Amino acid sequence: MLKYQQIATEIEKYIEDHALQQGDKLPVLEKLMAQFDVSKSTITKSLDLLEKKGVVFQVRGSGIFVRRHKRKGYISLLSNQGFKKDLEEFTITTEVIELNVIKPSEEVALNLNIKADDDVYSVKRVRYINGQTLCLEESFYNKAIITYLNKEIVSESIFHYIREGLGLKVGFSDLYLHVDMLTEEEAGYLGLKQGMPKLYVETVFHLTNGQPFDFSKITYNYEQSQFVIQADSHFL
Amino acid sequence: MLKYQQIATEIEKYIEDHALQQGDKLPVLEKLMAQFDVSKSTITKSLDLLEKKGVVFQVRGSGIFVRRHKRKGYISLLSNQGFKKDLEEFTITTEVIELNVIKPSEEVALNLNIKADDDVYSVKRVRYINGQTLCLEESFYNKAIITYLNKEIVSESIFHYIREGLGLKVGFSDLYLHVDMLTEEEAGYLGLKQGMPKLYVETVFHLTNGQPFDFSKITYNYEQSQFVIQADSHFL
């Protein structure tokens, strides 16, 4: 972790420890520099990172303010960290249904930008929140990039393993969402009835070099899931 | 519009005109500087803006690449522009159901950070896509900020009016989503059956100074709507 990332984490902790609310003003730059004992350029980079993450907003000539949405228990759709962090007050568990090496379907090959005879890891899991079904997840990993998975790894956070175990850098992702009715199979896994509502999310995750490595399809139990997005306006 | 914003728009047009696809490489910095006749600092700011908007991604030591999700007809949940731009191949029309000045409910007052005896504009509309219902929208505007609305304005793009007519600067927004079943009233407006699935989105829009000015609740017709989010990883 670079210095400015570390300081950003500390400022986030400061906001949490002081229970600062949306609109509360942070100390001025000079104070922050002194408090964390860093240069102006470092503190500026830390604040820019926190602005991108939706933790603060900066008003020119006026200061730096806390940005914090007010609702608890919402899953962030913009976080690439998986939802463990959003739901840390809850117990999240995982049941692994399948883990195989397969040849990709046309859909998977297209989304991962690979050929029909390349290998992919296919992982099917059900995630639980406090013992209730949260979602059914089917993920396909390009085996040329994610070279090794086993049952133990996919029982825990796969992304943690990808970062720490494989040392890969996760970059941007494209999410496609729609709402529909549960199929019989999905309803079975989620313990709901066929025809009930679902949120269905397809995500293509890319490395920082732009290569897609994970195509994932998640079907959420609508009774257990709610979502938050913190959006910025870059269009003015 | 500032110079770098203008150049960013021109680079976007260049990508579109040349039908560049995800992963295609842009000309190197020096070429872009010459092509658009601007300084290095301007072109760098333009590219940073385009990266924030999800139009390009930059790979250190390797270049600038086009980032473009592959699916058409998806509504961007991160755009504060309204969905007219995402759906420009479709005909979007609006039916105004209600336009009133009212006192806010507790929920509205909380989300707009105003008092119970402040005034809000309450706007209820149904939006149509190619003649089919797309969504039911109920929005509440803090009248101290959005000082004037009339039926003509709310028949068109309210955000366009807020920017161009009132000269306000729209900043960040917080979106809260969940999936549920349509109530009888919602089903009536959308021409669907009670109990069918819906995506329900609440959004709090803020000015760049952090002041919330619009609290909006949208219920989407699941048969006519699909969504895209382009996410970045700021967590590494």
TrEMBL record, chains A, B:
Gene Ontology MF terms: DNA binding; DNA-binding transcription factor activity
Residue span(s) of domain HTH gntR-type: 1-69
Entries under PROSITE patterns matching the protein: HTH_GNTR
Keywords, comma-separated and alphabetical: DNA-binding, Transcription, Transcription regulation
InterPro entries: Bact_HTH_transcr_reg, Chorismate_lyase_/UTRA_dom_sf, Tscrpt_reg_HTH_GntR, UTRA, WH-like_DNA-bd_sf, WH_DNA-bd_sf
Record bears the keyword DNA-binding: yes
GO biological-process terms attached to the record: negative regulation of DNA-templated transcription
Pfam (any one): GntR
Name of this protein: GntR family transcriptional regulator
Source species of the chain: Salipaludibacillus agaradhaerens
